[in-house]
């Protein structure tokens, strides 16, 4: 997954344990990454960020999840 800020800043891709069938399973990962990479960004995962979800080893985006 790749987290993208509301300003278009992209974090490095990360592999996380979550399921596309349960999109909310990505939310805690988004909050943690935002807090680390965006200088204490949204702590609840709903700060206007989006996640690009890909399969491991692929750059094909399966889904884009948005919060905020």
3D structure, described in words:
The chain is α+β, with helices and mostly antiparallel strands and 68 residues long. It is 16% helix and 21% strand. It is built from 1 helix and 3 strands; from the N terminus they run E-H-E-E. The chain has one helix at 27-37, and strands at 2-4, 50-54, 61-66. It has a 3-stranded antiparallel sheet, covered by helices on one side. The longest helix has 11 residues, at 27-37. The chain is globular, with a radius of gyration of 11 Å. It starts with a strand and ends with a strand. The model has no long low-confidence stretch (mean pLDDT 83).
Could you give the topology of this structure?
Blueprint: E1 2-4, H1 27-37, E2 50-54, E3 61-66
Antiparallel strand pairs: 1-2, 2-3
Summarize the structure.
With 68 residues, the protein is α+β, with helices and mostly antiparallel strands. It has one helix spanning 27-37, and strands at 2-4, 50-54, 61-66. The two termini are 18 Å apart.
**What pattern of helices and strands is seen along the backbone?**
EHEE
Gyration radius, to the nearest Å? 11 Å
Strand content: 15-25%
Approximately how much helix is present in the residues?
A: 10-25%
Shape: globular
The end-to-end span amounts to 18 Å
* Structural class assignment: alpha+beta
Mean pLDDT, nearest integer?
83
Number of helices: 1
- How many extended strands? 3
Instruction: Please describe the biggest sheet, giving its number of strands, its sense, and whether it closes into a barrel.
Output: 3 strands, antiparallel
Give the low-pLDDT segments. none
Spatial strand arrangement across the major sheet: 1-2-3
């Amino acid at each position: 997954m790749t987290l993208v800020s509301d300003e278009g800043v992209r974090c490095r891709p990360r592999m996380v344990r979550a399921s596309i069938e349960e999109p909310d399973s990505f939310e805690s990962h988004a909050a943690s990454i935002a807090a680390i990479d965006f200088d204490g960004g949204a702590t609840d995962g709903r700060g206007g960020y989006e996640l690009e979800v890909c399969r491991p080893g692929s750059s094909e985006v399966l889904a884009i999840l948005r919060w905020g």
